[in-house]
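Please describe the entry underneath.
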Amino acid sequence: MIKEVIQNAINTQIAREIYSSNLYLSMAGYYTTKNLHGFANWMRIQAEEEMTHALKFFDYLLDRGGKPVLAAIAAPPSEWTNPVKVFEDAYHHEQLVTSWIHELADLAITERDHATSSMLKWFIDEQVEEEATTGEIYDRFVMVGDNPTALFFLDNELKARKAAPAADAKSAK
């Protein structure tokens, strides 16, 4: 049976992951309205990934005999001052998610919950990739600045992102 303090922290993280999914979906909508369909594609796939993360935590709680409790999710922003600001916000959001995962990992260590520590290793590794990817795209966005040709090429490049093969969250653990 999972400790209540760990269960509560994971339930909080489930809400955060769902918020992250909604945030990226909102970003995809913003980019679509600006006819930046490559950026929209990238964000939409990111939204799907974040929901998969929420389901991994959800299933983990069930596997440990815990009870997932879904919280209300705040509405994400839907407008940004410019397309670069969207990726800047995405990058900073991934840094925030990393801090939340690290807090969970610290709690698992404090509570001597080795199973949760083991499960969180996947998320810790995932966040290294998430920060690197969003940071690289943001840096490239800043480099192209107001150059419409460069923006077109970057947008076109991001159209190529494909969603990971469909797998249920439980088997993806």
Remarks:
- Residues 108 and 114 are 7 Å apart (CA to CA).
